[in-house]
Amino acid sequence: MLKNPSALEKDPSRYDAVWKAAEEYMRARKNDIHIPLSFACAQTLLKHYPDADHDICSLAILLHDIGWYSIDMDRILSEGFRRENFLQTDVRYLHEEEGVRLGTEVLRATGWSEEVVEAVCEIIDGHDTRAEPHHLNDRIVRDADKLWRYSVPGIAVICDWMEMTPRQYADRLENQYQKLETEQGKLMAKSMLADSRIQLMLHLI
Asked: pTM for the full model?
């Protein structure tokens, strides 16, 4: 397994070229909000799990959802969020496939090795639909992907996608802590949701 846990600390700008190369693909499905927030969650998780590979996790969370760019937003909402068992719909598999395709292009264009490309894309391919994580890097990316939901911006965006009020969506999140893969992720989710409930006045509205 590739390993470089302190990479970001050594050079905070090491991913800047990837952000810029992927920017076009983030201007869809609010990924320009979702991905930076998830990236920040990944950096927090990585501090608690030094055995994870910093580069692989950071690049995978940065690129994991850019495949939504290739799919019409109406289809994303109707099939990807508003159906029963929506995590197993065709559109979910398609965004992973497209994420691998676009992610490979971005990583090669920005000079990352084929070893890194393979490791990152192995996580992207299945990050929503795979029943069980393959390894620690996978667990961290899956948690970082979910944790944004517990933030104020996450609730604000997703409650519209799910056709719920903020309180209804926050109540739904209360039952989802156990779906997170790491103990630190569970702690972060509970803390973030408690703060979001206060900020959004969900005890009143």
From this structure: 0.91
